[in-house]
Amino acid sequence: MTTSAQAAQPSPERIFETLTAFQQTEALRSAIELDIFTAIGEGATTAAALAHRCGASERGTRILCDYLTIIGFLTKEGGRYSLSPDSAVFLDRRSPACMASVSQFIGSAVRKGGTTESADVTTAPDDPMWVTFANAMAPMMRMPAERIAALLDAAAGKPWKVLDIAAGHGMFGITLARHNPQAEVVAVDWAAVLAVAKANAQAAGVAGRYRALPGSAFEVEFGNGYDVVLLTNFLHHFDAATNEKLLHKVNAALKPGGRAVTLEFVPNEDRVTPPVAAKFSLTMLAATDHGDAYTFPEYEKMFRNAGFSSSTIHPIPPSPGQVILSVK
Amino acid sequence: MTTSAQAAQPSPERIFETLTAFQQTEALRSAIELDIFTAIGEGATTAAALAHRCGASERGTRILCDYLTIIGFLTKEGGRYSLSPDSAVFLDRRSPACMASVSQFIGSAVRKGGTTESADVTTAPDDPMWVTFANAMAPMMRMPAERIAALLDAAAGKPWKVLDIAAGHGMFGITLARHNPQAEVVAVDWAAVLAVAKANAQAAGVAGRYRALPGSAFEVEFGNGYDVVLLTNFLHHFDAATNEKLLHKVNAALKPGGRAVTLEFVPNEDRVTPPVAAKFSLTMLAATDHGDAYTFPEYEKMFRNAGFSSSTIHPIPPSPGQVILSVK
């Protein structure tokens, strides 16, 4: 049997790889919690030095760092570990782009969802998870927020009333306000979460044009005359009928010609490509009662049923998310 | 920025992929528990038909099957799912090579290990986990067992006394007995596990030459004059000093020129290649207090310190395991 014939044979390898895939998650989370990446960046590069620095056993540290090398987060040369380019930028806490805090959210939210009997964990009022989320996801959302500001031509500086629904960390509305000095932002979310958003608005120098509107997006009075309504990473939590109800309310809040801006993971109609967007559906299965990763035709239909005249979809590479612009 | 320049940029993609890798494990385990693969093999190929057949919700079934398509266990065409070649052979319970039962073991053992405070879950006396293990792993070990029988030239039919330490399902000793009608096998393991091995020996038609010796490998009296001692997937549970103690005892049980046969995941000296063998170290970190995936020089030294004259290592592709033959 030749090597290529062997490769074409059915093999249990992928099954094992998948049944042990959870170890990758646990290893990376452990390393982030031990702050291994920062320690290596600071020069503790042997298992012994890292164990001492991170307060872990040498056996455990060595095995963990070897495993991280195998899965691509470190390199190893003569018993010394170095950071991979991704780890240096995104996992060393000294890096401005560090997203180590995200691991808290991704672990806790999805796991909690997966083990909760039936209650929908993501939409319970004032769930403290969302404060964690707001803090953790802000660094990751900077780039998509910049892309949205560019897509809307915020820098043109027209007088804008912006409504940011489920604002979270607030980065989307704040970024519009930074680029457009004529923009005023109203942010809707639970009160505890809006405290995070307001602090971020303060830090960005836009607090004077930033107003918090605490409560459920389905219940609070939005007001009207908005130029832009932001719906970022929100509609995936609900079924289509619930979304349409909300979108009717959004439509009523917009001025004629105003735009709803949806940021989502949008799979193709086959629902299995592209992989990152299509996989997101499983996260919604685990974390919500009725949520999903909807296709563009599904979103287009929801917006049309809610009174919008047209929707267009815009990739924002390298982010796997896409932006849907829907005009009233 | 060109596409290739973008690809070379540091990206958080791998970090997300890793933080969500546990979903792959959970999806595959769920699909095995729902017996989705058998259902598709039997002709239920739409989400609606599968949901009905497996007693699950249509939303959940559709999202789960889409996810399994994305990670390569199914294909999807016009809303109908088909089994990938690997799934058809290894996950459809109608296939003789089905290893769906393995998922029980891989999940339970490693997770249990990972969450146990300090007790070593794998070596506690009579741990019922090992009965599950014995039943689950037997189908997977058929091929390595055949390779070992060939490596030892069992078919030459010399009179052999074989000691199978931590026999488990018993497939290694049983396979030698099947190929060598002059072989007599003594199997050591916990009593409840040996019941599985004896049933397998009965089914293989070698029960008349198969004797059970219940107890701890560290404590029972092996007897002596053995031609072959099997140490399959066992030494990785312990530290080197403990292994050397056991190997002294094994050496004493062998006749001059007799061979110890070790089946293990053996990483290279860098401990980060080849990936499957090197990753196994993390499983031992999670599941044992002192176990490891040892390199060949480490095993060679343990056997030498225990009185063996030489050790050689033998790959048995496509299995990621390797066989070490050590001569008294």
What distinguishing features does this structure have?
two-stranded antiparallel ribbon; 9 strands; homodimer; 328 residues
* Quaternary structure annotation: homodimer
Instruction: Pick out the low-confidence regions of chain A.
Output: 1-7, 108-119
- Spatial sequence of strands, sheet with the most strands of chain A: 5-4-3-6-7-9-8
- In what range is the share of β-strand residues of chain A? 15-25%
Q: Give the end-to-end Cα distance of chain A, rounded to a whole number of Å.
A: 64 Å
Helix content range of the residues of chain A, please? 40-55%
User: Radius of gyration of chain A from the CA trace?
Assistant: 22 Å
Largest sheet report of chain A: 7 strands, mixed
Count of helical regions of chain A: 14
Largest interface: A-B, 68 and 68 residues
Describe the structure.
- 2 copies of one chain form a homodimer.
- Helix content of chain A is 48%, strand content 17%.
- The first copy, chain A, is globular, with a radius of gyration of 22 Å.
- Chain A contains 14 helices and 9 strands.
- The longest helix of chain A is centred in the middle third of the chain and has 23 residues, at 129-151.
- Residues 1-7 and 108-119 of chain A have low confidence and may be disordered.
- In chain A, the strands form 2 sheets. In chain A, strands 5-4-3-6-7-9-8 form a 7-stranded mixed sheet, with helices on both faces. A two-stranded antiparallel ribbon of chain A has the order 1-2.
- Chain A starts with a helix and ends with a strand.
- Chain A has helices at 3-8, 13-19, 21-34, 36-41, 47-54, 58-70, 85-90, 102-115, 129-151, 171-179, 191-203, 240-253, 275-287, 296-305, and strands at 74-77, 80-83, 160-165, 183-189, 210-214, 226-232, 254-264, 310-315, 322-327.
- By secondary structure, chain A is an alpha/beta fold.
- In chain A, a hairpin with a 6-residue loop joins β8 (310-315) and β9 (322-327).
- At the A-B interface, α2, α3, α6, α7 and α8 of A face α2, α3, α6, α7 and α8 of B.
